[in-house]
Amino acid sequence: MKSTLPRILICTGLLALGACSHVRSAATRGLIEDMAAATARHDDVDLVVQAVPTYILLLEGLLRSDGDNRDNLLTAAEVYLSYGTVVEMADPLRARGLYGRAKEYGLRALANTRSGLAPLLNGPFAEFTAIDDKLRPEDLPVVFSASSAWGAWIASHTEAVSALAELPKVIHLMEWVLRQDETYNNGSPHVFLGVYHASLPPMLGGRPDLSREHFQAALRITQRQSLMVQVLMARFYARQTFDHDLYESLLHEVLNHENRGMGELTLQNAIAIRHARTLLEEADDFF
Amino acid sequence: MIFSKHVRAFLVTLLAHTAFGLSPVSGATIIKLGTLAPEGSGWVNSLRAIDAEIREVSGGEVGFKIYPGGVQGDEHVMLRKIRIGQIHGGGFGGTGVSRILPDVLALEMPFLFDSYEEVDYVLAEMDEFFTAGFAEAGYEFLGWSDIGFVYLLSQQPIRSSTDIQGMDVWRLEDEPITEVLFRLADVTSVPLTIPDVLFGLQTNLVEVVYASAAAAIVLQWFTRVRFYTDLPINYTVGAVLVHNKAFHRIPNADHRDALRAIARKHINAFNRNNRDDNREALKVMRSQAVQPVTPRPEDVESFRVLVERAIPELVGSAFSAQAYDSVLRHLDDFRRGNTSP
Fold first, then answer.
1. Taking the model in full, what pTM does it have?
2. Is A185 left (phi over 0), alpha (psi -120 to 50) or beta?
3. Complex confidence, ipTM
């Protein structure tokens, strides 16, 4: 049996994860942060997508001047990850290259965090779990973003068993993030694991029971205001478990939500609403 | 950076559109297929390739609607849905195929095949036999999908059939061959569903499991074992099957023939890739510090003796003597070089 995780698994997980590193160069920090804040509050999805390459060039410039800077590496990982997801639909091969960079920068950032991490990241899984003793609570953002980039790279190489063999490490890291702070970035570790556990049928190792627990935790943490949680729960958990009623109620909840005064959730919720409409239109194909 | 999550969200919107696939052409015959394999897997890609080509060849008259990732339920549920016409067929793994036609199990007896060349020869020779068998069971047979050779994975090294005695060995429920074998081998077999196996390994509820190398990676079992016995135990296979009623709703006989040929072509290509994956997976396991344990010839013999003892119990009950005898006869022909052109 050659079965692999669907590409959408990691991408979708990532979307809600949102990256949180900060560019610390004094010259650029203010600009980037202002743009990011404005972006999140924007409700024009297409405009945002067109703006991404600008960020990429900006970050590459920073990397050229300081290639070992952990924060720059991490931010670059996140930007490549983001842009990879944008170009993937039109050009999956190109996206693989971008995810490759995202993974490389992300893992370099993580390896630079503390001595002794690099051999664990590259070694067999049995030894990898010792990473728990090395990581410290303040490593959370770098662990989160690096494992997100790593996950996206795996998801774009699902035909390669060698790539799939790295997935347990990503899941292990995301579970570490969850233990540090389950509320991190609007409960993103819960969303990631909720999607992961619902992405395979039970006969192939999927765990819808765990998926449900993670999604419920994310709903609780976001107080149901981050609509992508409902959308992903419908898309992955409700479909996997044939729960048509739950599917409909989650998606109608999204459509009925008044997406006003949502601050940084504005754009994400606008996308979630668009997504919910599509999922509802296609419900008959799945139930 | 905060903006990135929004970009990703946008992508998901796009992905959602494509995941829903093509809309049926008005008046076209759409065959709805379920499979446990997830979206993006080689297997689903292969079904999509068949769909694309038959749509092109038939001018949009015939197509597949594919439900990947087990969204139509496990294989038992899929079979139920086929009976009531909710879906029309599936890309089945071992469970579904052997339930539809138990004679398939005759191909999966341990130590039957030594190589893929033998497998390919016997499957080709028995094509008519199995096509007829599936037809009698109500299905159009569109091709075998390779799962691969199964290996023993363990926490302690297993070299011979005596090494395994006293160990707690996982067993998939309702699998007649392993049930008999483990009883005769005097091992404690612990029936667990597949999702519980990883946890079973973590908690030492089971110390020995078995799977194809690629499955051991995908199911992540390789993370919880230290050894694999470098001896392919048995070949395992799935199939693409479409219920006869749905298949014959394709009005044009040429299109039916075209679908048969196109399906075979893509499924064969999938099988070649799958075999490469299994070879690669063994390498990956070694790189992940799962050590190969090589049995000596007398150890291999100890396993074979065990299987010999199991044969009388299985032939005529788990599968028909006719199927098993045919497999053996063709295998013997191949080994003697007495092959048909």
1. 0.79
2. left
3. 0.76
